[in-house]
Amino acid sequence: MAENGEPLIPCKTIIWCPTFTPPASNMLPPDDPFSNSLKLVLEANYHPFAIKQPQRAKPVDASSSPLTFYDRHISSKLTLKRIVLLPSIPKSLSGICEHTLQTFTHWNCHTFSSYESALFQVTNGILHDAFQVADYYQTEFGQICQKFASKLLVTPSLQDWHSVFTFQLNKDHRPGEYLTDSWLKVLYDPARDVCLFSQELQKQLNQPVKDRLRDLAMKYPRLADWHMFAMSLTTDRLFQGMFRNPTSGKELPFVWESSQTKTSQQEDHTHQPAEVDEAVLKSMLPKRADSKPEKQTTQLRPKKSSRFPRTRVRLGRPATHSYRLVSPLFLQHGWSQATFDDCSFIIFNCGRWERIGIRHRATQTLYLPGLINPARIQGPHYRKMHLGLHIAIVQDAFARQQISNELTLKEGRKRSIEPSPSNDEEPQPKRQRRTRFPSTTSEIARESRSSCHPAFYPSYVEEKFKTTYDLSECVSLVLGAPLGQGAVGVVHSASLEVGLESGEEFDIYSGLVNKKATKGILTVHGLFEDTEIGALVLVMENGGQTLRQREKERLNAIQAEQVTTPEER
Question: Has this prediction a pTM greater than 0.70?
Answer without folding.
Answer: no
